[in-house]
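Sequence in, structure out. Go.
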Amino acid sequence: VEVKKEEKENSKVSSIGSITIHVDNIIVTAVRSENGMVRVNNHRSRLPISLSHGKLRIYQKGKSMLMQSNFNLKVLYNWDDHVVIKLPATLSGKVCGMCGN
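Output:
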């Protein structure tokens, strides 16, 4: 999961310009200005979508996008400034970055 920040004009606070998720040779990108859509391997798709025979599901949850994988990775993004990443405890010690080392 990669998050790219962008500066907001006339503000000291930044927002999230895009979030990119790499799962099972699929690249999913949610771009701040494309609410309700994601790019799958660089092709725009409207939500909800199911990929890789249901191993990866992406749908709208309230005003946010929720991506769920078959190994219980969950990424919630509100198309502005908030990302939540959840992983099962079984992956403890197998990840780095925002989810720890």
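Check: The first strand starts at residue 2 and ends at 7. The chain has a mean pLDDT of 89.
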